[in-house]
Design brief:
The protein is built from 2 helices and 2 strands. The protein is of the alpha+beta class. It comes from Ciona savignyi (Pacific transparent sea squirt).
């Protein structure tokens, strides 16, 4: 069972879903801004076929 603190944390999270091919630039800009602000985010990467799923707490962009 989730504690109140965990529920508040979950409620404050938001999700970005980048499925449109024109959005990767926005995604890179968003995560680069978080990197500069030294903030972190949870990321889920899935392939279009959804056969591959990668859950991670931070991502490295090069």
């Amino acid at each position: 069972m989730d504690t109140n603190e965990e529920k508040d944390s979950t409620a404050s999270q938001f999700r970005y879903r980048y499925s449109d091919p024109s959005l990767p630039g926005k995604m890179l800009k968003h995560f680069n801004e978080l990197r500069h602000q030294k903030k972190f985010t949870d990321v889920i990467v899935t392939s279009q076929s959804t056969k591959v799923r990668l859950d991670c707490h931070s991502i490295v962009l090069s």
